[in-house]
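Troubleshooting log. The previous run stalled partway through. Resubmitting the same four chains, unchanged.
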Amino acid sequence: MPSVAFLGLGAIGTPMARHLARTDWGLRVWNRTSARAADFAAKYAELGVTQAATPAAAARGADVVITCFAVSGDVEMLLDGPDGLLAGLARGATLVDCTSGDPTTSKRLAARLAAMGVGYLDAPVSGGVVGAESGTLTVMIGGDANTIETVRPFLEAFGKKIVHCGAVGTGDAVKAVNNGLLALHLWSTAEGLAVLTSAGVDPAVALDVINTSSGRSNASMNLFPERVLTRAFPRTFRLALLDKDVGIAAQVAREQKIPTPMLQLTAELYQAAHRALGEAADHVEVVKWVEQLTGTVIKSQDASP
Amino acid sequence: MPSVAFLGLGAIGTPMARHLARTDWGLRVWNRTSARAADFAAKYAELGVTQAATPAAAARGADVVITCFAVSGDVEMLLDGPDGLLAGLARGATLVDCTSGDPTTSKRLAARLAAMGVGYLDAPVSGGVVGAESGTLTVMIGGDANTIETVRPFLEAFGKKIVHCGAVGTGDAVKAVNNGLLALHLWSTAEGLAVLTSAGVDPAVALDVINTSSGRSNASMNLFPERVLTRAFPRTFRLALLDKDVGIAAQVAREQKIPTPMLQLTAELYQAAHRALGEAADHVEVVKWVEQLTGTVIKSQDASP
Amino acid sequence: MPSVAFLGLGAIGTPMARHLARTDWGLRVWNRTSARAADFAAKYAELGVTQAATPAAAARGADVVITCFAVSGDVEMLLDGPDGLLAGLARGATLVDCTSGDPTTSKRLAARLAAMGVGYLDAPVSGGVVGAESGTLTVMIGGDANTIETVRPFLEAFGKKIVHCGAVGTGDAVKAVNNGLLALHLWSTAEGLAVLTSAGVDPAVALDVINTSSGRSNASMNLFPERVLTRAFPRTFRLALLDKDVGIAAQVAREQKIPTPMLQLTAELYQAAHRALGEAADHVEVVKWVEQLTGTVIKSQDASP
Amino acid sequence: MPSVAFLGLGAIGTPMARHLARTDWGLRVWNRTSARAADFAAKYAELGVTQAATPAAAARGADVVITCFAVSGDVEMLLDGPDGLLAGLARGATLVDCTSGDPTTSKRLAARLAAMGVGYLDAPVSGGVVGAESGTLTVMIGGDANTIETVRPFLEAFGKKIVHCGAVGTGDAVKAVNNGLLALHLWSTAEGLAVLTSAGVDPAVALDVINTSSGRSNASMNLFPERVLTRAFPRTFRLALLDKDVGIAAQVAREQKIPTPMLQLTAELYQAAHRALGEAADHVEVVKWVEQLTGTVIKSQDASP
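Second attempt completed without errors. Output:
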C-alpha cells in the first residue's frame, strides 16, 4: 500500500488532502501551523491519517509527497536541515508541488531532487475551493511523462483533468498565464463597465449584452454578475495571490524576451492595486480600485441600496 | 401596411434586409454601389422589394428608415442635398441607424432629426454575418423608449435580443465597449499563448486548460481553436472595423475623463496592427502581428503542416 | 497708431498685457471677472489702457485682438451674440489666440473668422509666468505667414522667440506635444527615482548622476531638484491644465492615426492623478501621486525634516 | 607600486585601460578574444603593460582587478575553474566591475568574493566612448565606502565624477535607471515628433521650440538634432545593450514591487524593437522603428535628399 504525505493545509490544500485521506493509502500531513495538521489528523484518524512532526518525518517512507503553498519559495525553505524534506525523501519517491509556483524555482527544485534520485513535478491546480472540495480540480503538470504516470492515481484523487504541459516549469507557466488572463479580463471588464456606467448605461444591461456577444469572458459571465453588481465581493481568492501569479506570468515572458505590453501593464496595475487594497482584499475587489480611479460605482441601477 | 427603407447592403446589411423583405411591409432598398441594390430588388421583386434611386426616394413615405454602414460619418453624408435623407423623411418617421457608430455623431444626427420631427435610434447589432443570416442578432439601442416600441416589430425581423441601453449614443457605446473587450481579449490571449509557446507548451494544450479555467473568454473558446490553431484565419470581420470600434470605445472613455489604461493601450496596438496588416486583414489576423512581434507561431504541435 | 485688445487677464495673460500696455499702441482689456480688468485699466490708465465692457467692445476698431484663456472652448464661447467678438471684429483685423488650445477648435474658429475677412492665428506661448513677466515667451504659431508678419510687432512685445509652425492648429499641436513630453518626463523621472529610493539610493545622489548623464531632462534638471527634493511643490502651473494639454496631444495623435502608446499611457495616468489630486494641485504634485502608488517619498536623505 | 588588472577590452574598456596604462602602476590585460589583448599589450609595452594568459593570471598579485563586459553574467562566467578569477584573486584585493550589470548578480558576486576576503564594487560608467577616451567618465558605485577609498586613485584614472550610490547593486541600479530614462525619452520624443510631422510641422522647427521649452531632454537636445534629423544614425551604442539596461531597470522595479507602468512599457517596446531591428542596430535607430509603426519619417523638410 503506497504512502503519501501532504504538506500545506490551506484553503485549497485541506480539501485536497481530504480526498487523499479517503483512499486506501496511508496519509501523513504536515502544516506550518501545526494545530491545523493536528486537527486534520484527529478528524480523519479512523481513515489512518497521522500528523508528521516535521517535513522530514512526513517525507520518510512516502512514495509521493505533495506540497501546496502560497509560493515556490515556501517549498524551497522546507528542503534543508535535519527536519527538511531532503532528509526524509527516499530515492525513487516523487515530490508533486501543487503550489502555484514559478518556473525558475521549480527548475531549481527539480535539479536538486534529481541529484538525489527523487522525481519532481510542478502541478498547480485550478478550480478554486469549490473544485478542491468536489475533487474536480484541473492539474497542470510540468515534468517527465513517466513520472506523471507513476503518480496519476494520487492526482486523480482530487483532480478531474490532468494535463501534461511539458518540461518542468511548464505547469507553473500555464497556471500563471491562465491567472494572468483572469486578472487582465477582470480589469478590462471593469474599465469597460466604468465607461458605460459613466455614460448612463446600467452595468447590468451592459453585461446582459456583452455576455451574449463577443466581448464576454469568465470575468464578465461569472464574477461581475455574482460578485460586483451585487456588491457581495466574497473573499475566495486573495488579490495578493493573483498579483503574485500575474507577476510570474510577466516574469516568464521577460525571461524569454517575448514582448507582452498588455500583460506587463496588468502586472503593474495589480501591483498598485495590491499595495492600495492590502493583503486581505479578494481578487475581485480590484474592481473597487478601478472604481476609485474612475469615480464610478459599477452597480445595477435596480439594486436595492 | 407600414413601409420600410433599408440603406447599406453590406455583409451584415444584406441578410438583415432579406428578413425585412420577407415581412408584409413594403421594402425599398438603396446602396451606394447601386448594382447591389438592383440585384437585391430583382431577387426579391415578388416580395414587393423595390430599389430607390436616392436616399431621399428611399425615405419618402417610409415609416422606418434603417441604415447600416461602416461608420457614422457615412450616414451623416447621406443627410443633405436634394437627394438626401432629410429631403425624404416625413415628420413622425424614425431613422434606425444600425451602423456601429460613435455616440457623438449619433447625438448630432438625433438633434438634427428631432428638429424635423423625425425620431432617431442608434441601434448597432452584434452576432456577425451568421447572426444576421439567422435573424438572431442582438440589437443595442440608444434613444427614447417609446420610439423603440414603435419600431420594435421591424427590429424583431432580424434581431432576437432587443436591448434598450439608455439615451441616444448608448447603443453605440455598448457596442464599442463590447468590441473593445473582444479586441483586448484577442490580444491578451495571443500574448499568453506566445509566452507559453515559447516556453515549449503546445498552445492547443494550453487552450484546453485555459478554456476550463478562469482565464477563458470568447476569444480563447472560439477564435483561437477554430481560426488560429488551424491557421485558417477566415475573413469574416475586418481588422480595420475592429480598430475603428476600439477607437470609439477609447474616445468615449476620454470624453468622460474615465482613466482606462488597458483599453487605451489596446487602441494603440490595434492602430499599429491595422497599419501593418492593411485594410483587407481579418480581425483575428492581429494574432499574426503578435506572432511577428514575439517571434512565435501559435500553432498546435500536432497540426499537419 | 494701431489698436490692440487683450482678453483674458490670468496668470500668464496679465503680464503679457502689461508688455502691450507699455507700447505706443492703444490697449483695451476685457476679462470675465470684470474687476480684474478694471484694476488693470486703472493701474495703467496713464499709459492709455481702457477697460472694455464686452468682448464686442474690446474688438471694435482693434487691429489685433489677443485672447488668452484656459481652453479653446472659452474663446469659442466669446464669439457669438450682440456682445460677442464677431459683433466687434472688423474685416482685416486679426485674432491671435494665445490659449493653449486644441487644433480642432482652432480650425473651426479660423474658418468662421475667415468667412468674415478676419485673420486667425493659434499662438500658444511657453515660458510660464516668469517668461511672461520678462517678455521672453516662446510663441508657437499656426496660420498664414503673411498674417504673422502683420502682427509680429505685437507678438514681440511679450515674445522673444516667434516660431511659425505651419497651418492653423499647428501652434496648438506643438504646444500640446511639448507639454505632453514635460508630463511624460516628469512621470518617468518620478518612477525612476521611486525605484532608486526604494533600493536605498538617496534621490539627490541619483539626480546628481542622471543630470550629468544621458537620462536627464528639463524635469530632472529643474523640477526635481528645486521642487520635489525640497518638498516645496510651489503652485505655478496647475495639474488640471497639464492634464488638458496631454489630452490634446493624445487626441491629435489619435485623429491622425499615429500609434503613440507612451503618450496615451501618460494621458491616462494624468487623468487619474488629476482626479485623485483635485483642481488646485500643481503639475509637479503628480509626483506625490507616484509616491502614493509606490509607497515611497522622493526626498533627499540629507534634507532636514 | 600597486598592480592592476583589466579584463574586457571592448569599445569602452580599451580607452579605460589606456588611461590606466599611463599611470605608474603595473597593468595586466586579458580579453576573451586574446588577439585584442595582445595588440594592446604590444602597443603599450614600453609603459609596462603585459598580457595575461588567463583571468587567474591577470588577477594573481593584483591589488585591483577591473572588469568591463556586456552583462554581469560575462563576469560571473570568469570566476570558476583553474583559470578563473577566484583562482588568482588574493585576500585583500578588490574586484571593480565596470560592467553595466544587474544588482542581483552583483550581490551574488560580492557574497562569493567576500567569503574569500576579496572586496567587490559594482561600478558602471557613463559618458560613452567619448568620455572613456577623455577620461571623464562618471562612475556610479555600489559597495562599501572604505573599499571605494582604497581604489579611488584607480577610478580617477578614467573617471571624473566618482559617485557612491549605496550598498552593492546600487551602482548598477542607478546606471540602469539612467539608461531606462534615456530609452524612455528617446521613444517619447520620437512619438511626439511623429505626431507633429504627420500634422505638417517640420520636426526641426518642433525641436527648436521643444529645446527651449519644458519638454526638452538629452534625447531632444542632442540625439535628435545630430543623429535623427540628419539621418546619420551613427552606431555608437547598440540597441541590444540599451534594451538590456531597460530590462535591468524594469527588473529592479519589479523585485521591489514598485509599480512603474511607463518604465515597464518602455521595456516591452525596446524588446520588440530589438527583435525587429537586430543585434547590430544603434540605440537611436529605435526611432526608425517608431517611424515604421507610425508611417512617418522624422526628417527636416530643408534637408537635402
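Takeaways: The two ends of chain C are 58 Å apart (CA to CA). The longest helix of chain C spans residues 170-198.
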